[in-house]
Design brief:
361 residues, alpha+beta, seven-stranded antiparallel beta sheet, four-stranded mixed beta sheet, 10 helices, 16 strands, 35% helix
Length: 361
């Protein structure tokens, strides 16, 4: 999901908020009728109200009995079915849920405890029958999968589909979509550079904690805001067109990669062809980054100098706040043209990781 300062087909954060408000207004308008419905018609009606407002997102009902009206212990779980392009919509819906709702609201399908199985088209697969090894590719989790029981050749694709469902249930929608970048199967051959050889296969039941530990300790993703001074690295080279490029990468920002509240990447681009323009760009950068990241609302992740343009990237909690801070910072620099501003909801931090991995290699 992208935003620029020019009109775009993609919804802005204000438009997403307005869509969420329309949905909740419709829900409150039918609250009395909804409270009298059983779980299935209740969920169907909620989705009938949701689809015109926020396409691509659905709501599921958890914790409700199969019979009788849906009680206050029920949870409304909003899901994008693993589509990260719609995660911002899910978060807008849950952030703006009215306080007077009788039901709890959750963003994304949450993790399930292990020790369960599923049956599809006559084939059974349980969590203890799916074997996992953990590695990394391009700064994200990589998983190597195999089965502890024979799978007939004509059911291989079917079993693999079931394996993905089990992974989604065990890791949760957000983590599986955002933190896991590659899933491979032993029978296809595995990537040589993922580090799978360092692990013995373990059941999916036992692998969830291993995956969490790998993310936190091996990849360094503590989710704790890094203290000053942060560590920077520099890259120099040429881009695909052969033009010079220089990149400064905030290595300390790696601790925050894919944190759910830092899903927006906002970038500001300014000309930097000569000493005067470069000084203006740096003055703007200092003021903007200080404002956009105040009170740990974001972090400056990387800066790219290419083709006479200096582009500063920040991952932030609120794109609107960061964009407004950029406009104010630009107005405070005498004689400086307005920067080109863009915002993209990028929960996997793909742009940052592309440069971070280059520094670590």
């Amino acid at each position: 999901m992208n935003r620029t300062e020019s009109p775009s087909r993609e919804p802005s954060t204000q438009e997403m908020s307005a869509a969420a408000d329309r949905f909740w207004a419709a829900v409150l308008g039918e609250r009395a009728d909804l409270q009298g419905l059983e779980s299935v018609p209740f969920m169907e009606r909620l989705n009938a109200l949701l689809e015109p407002c926020v396409p691509g997102v659905t709501v599921e009902v958890a914790g409700a009995g199969k019979e009788g009206p849906v009680e206050g212990l029920a949870r409304l779980v909003f899901t994008a079915h693993g589509s990260a392009e719609r995660f911002a919509d899910v978060q807008a819906l849950t952030a703006q849920a009215p306080a007077q709702l009788p039901w709890r609201v959750e963003a994304f399908r949450q993790r399930m405890p292990g020790g369960f199985g599923m049956r599809m088209d006559g084939f059974d697969l349980a969590t203890h029958e799916l074997l996992v090894r953990v590695g990394q590719i391009d700064g994200r989790i990589a998983l190597a999968l195999s089965f502890s029981k024979p799978v007939p050749m004509d059911l291989q694709d079917h079993a693999r589909h079931m394996a993905f469902i089990l992974l989604d249930h065990m890791l949760g929608e957000y983590d599986f979509s955002v933190k896991v970048g590659v899933v491979e199967f032993d029978t296809d051959g595995l990537s040589d550079d993922a580090g799978f050889e360092d692990w013995e296969p373990a059941s999916l039941d036992d692998s969830v904690s291993r995956i969490d530990t790998f993310w936190r300790e091996t990849l360094g993703r503590s989710a704790v805001y890094p203290p000053e001074p942060v560590r920077w690295a520099a890259l120099e080279g040429r881009d695909a067109q052969g033009d010079p490029i220089m990149v400064q990468v905030n290595l300390s920002a790696n601790a925050l990669v894919s944190r759910a509240d830092f899903g927006w990447r906002v970038q500001a681009s300014l000309p930097a062809q000569d000493k005067s323009a470069l000084q203006q760009a740096q003055d703007f950068e200092d003021a903007w980054v200080n404002a956009a990241t105040m009170y740990q609302q974001g972090i400056c992740s990387h800066i790219v100098l290419r083709g006479g343009t200096r582009t500063v990237h920040c991952y932030v909690t609120s794109a609107d706040h960061a964009l407004e801070a950029a406009r104010r910072a630009a107005e405070a620099v005498p004689g400086m043209a307005p920067p080109v501003l863009e915002a993209e909801h990028e929960p996997a931090w793909s742009d940052y990781l592309g440069w971070y991995v280059e520094c670590r290699d």
